[in-house]
Input
Amino acid sequence: MHLSSFFVSQRLTMMVNRYEIRAAGADGKPGQLMALAQQKRLAFKEQVTFYSDEERTHPVFSFKARKTIDLASGYDVHDEFGNQIGFFRKDFGRSLLRSTFHLSGPGIEATGQERNVVVAIARRVVDFPFAFHFDFVDASGQPVMSVERQFSVRDRYSVTVPDPRLDFRLAAAMAVGLDALMAR
Output
């Protein structure tokens, strides 16, 4: 399933991070709930489960770290039946200056990097909720996905996916993964 535009917003709670993923409505604002993600804080092995409903009764996809220590760990994205639908990982070496991620799925390989090097460096020095943006491109330089953090105290992102090869579940997992992993 492909979704060309959606929004991710974080809900703060005591013991878990929750994310709402909403499709962009006809007016360009958040519309239909597509998934609700939940990440346990302080877990030894990073795992985020996405549910189809507010009550979190029906898991529809998830991602999980391959290793306990996640400096260069990869994250497998699975469908509701446990079948792998993609993979992403942080490029630890290239991320020292600008955070860089690699994204893989059926028929698609992409690399995403922070758009602005000045903001990337400032984020590492100052604890401030900077607006930052990631652009993912394939090997030919064609845009696959972009994630834009809106300037806000609460984490909110707008996501555009111009490449129809990119499954919504993999794009949503990567967008939530950016927020969860950038906080480290």
In short: The chain is about 15% helix and 45% strand. The radius of gyration is 15 Å. The chain has one domain: 5-182.
